[in-house]
Amino acid sequence: MKTTIIPTPTKHFTLIELLVVIAIIAILASMLLPALSKARDKAKTISCVNKFKQIGLAEMMYAQDNNDFIAIPVYHFMPSLVIWRSYTFDTTSGCTNPQHSKASALMFGGYLGGAPIKTLTKELTRPYFQCPSDNVIFGGDAGNGYSAMSYLFWCHDEDNAASDNNDPYNYLHKEWDSSKPGKARNRVGRDDPGRVIWGDAHGRCIGYITGAPGFYGRPYHSGNLNTLHLDGHVQSNTDSNEQIGTGTIWCYGPKYDVTK
């Protein structure tokens, strides 16, 4: 007997079915991408916090070797002037003086791990002082042989905190009151351990440093500002970014001192 095989018709997607599938994929992608973006930002924030922890440990070890004082730099071009607050490191060719920037003091002494180095370059400094979310500030020319870090530091004594003329909201004064003494933040065991000594550059500061108004209000971590304190602990502060419209360029971080 001869068997007749009837071919099974091949089923194809219709145009409408194909469009429905594409629409579903687009909807799923639109739901997943924001979550992935948030996860990526969270990972960068955690990496930034870990960098601050490493810097904090380096400052504590430095203080142990220097009569309890954290690193307090002076200007390369004018050694009689102390750098009480800044965002820079010394990349002057051939400079071997560890006092000329925070990064110099901590890296020349080997406090950040690895063998001590003799002179700074941007590439040597990048692993420690560039925020993973910063693609604007780090390495920029800050003038006079200095380059920019992603972070700001503060190491005031009481007198210089009280007289700092870039502190319109008196964050460097006790109780945020201009009639009160300044808040020293450079000697471990003497000064309040909750005082901020390092912090992210905030949105307005980034705009000021870059000279690009388009960067105003664009901090590294949206709604968040990380700070390192004198006892070595790191805080991730919920930050409403109200500083964007203020004149607080250099002294915003101390707002997050543990106590006023």
* Low confidence ranges: none
Number of helices: 5
Main β sheet profile = 6 strands, antiparallel
Gross morphology: elongated
The averaged pLDDT comes out at 87
**Which structural class fits the helix and strand makeup?**
alpha+beta
| Helix proportion range | 25-40%
Beta-sheet strand percentage?
5-15%
What's the domain count? 1
Cα-based radius of gyration, to the nearest Å: 26 Å
Distance between the termini: 100 Å
Number of strands: 6
Order of helices and strands: HEHHEEHEHEE
Offer a concise description of the structure:
With 260 residues, this protein is of the alpha+beta class. It is built from 5 helices and 6 strands. Strand 2 and strand 3 (146-154) form a beta hairpin.
